[in-house]
């Protein structure tokens, strides 16, 4: 399972209104449920918020990777949001967040879940990629930068995600 396979262009969202962590997670939950009939927006939201209560998924450098398991999720689902304005996400470095990579996985997807999280973290830890994502001026450009980063990481010799 690759990030490219689970992140289609229509789930790469540009200039999303921020407001608060709760509002952004509600927005994503509603969006993903509208596009995935098996998912319920309230359940997605409660699982994402439940995961945040265990500890913020704000990994620093303006990036958050909210993720959750969902019994109605048949295969991993990813979404990427570039916010209009950074928001407080209780990130480990205390910095506001404007780049959010959301990951939903089936209840039993242990190794897949960890591998995908590792891939996302590897991409989002790259300062050059973050700068390019922030400079993007359209949804299409945002997606192309992400896709290029995903492909580069997947083809990197000798590197294993995680």
What would you say this structure looks like, in words?
The chain has 162 residues and is of the alpha/beta class. The chain is 45% helix and 22% strand. The chain contains 6 helices and 6 strands, in the order H-E-H-H-E-E-E-E-E-H-H-H. It has helices spanning 3-6, 21-35, 41-54, 110-124, 127-135, 139-154; strands at 12-16, 58-60, 63-64, 67-70, 77-87, 97-106. Strands 1, 2, 3, 4, 5 and 6 form a 6-stranded mixed sheet that branches. Helix 2 packs antiparallel against helix 3 (41-54). The longest helix is centred in the C-terminal third of the chain and has 16 residues, at 139-154. It is globular and about 35 Å long. It starts with a helix and ends in an 8-residue tail after the last helix. The mean pLDDT is 92.
Q: What general outline do the C-alpha atoms trace?
A: globular
Which regions are unreliable across 5 or more consecutive residues at pLDDT < 50? none
What share of the residues lie within helices?
A: 40-55%
Derived structural class: alpha/beta
- Largest sheet, if any? 6 strands, mixed
Radius of gyration: 14 Å
Strand content: 15-25%
Instruction: Please report the distance between the alpha carbons of the first and last residues.
Output: 14 Å
- Average of per-residue pLDDT values: 92
Number of helices: 6
Count of β-strands:
6
Q: Multimeric state of these chains?
A: single chain
Order of helices and strands: HEHHEEEEEHHH
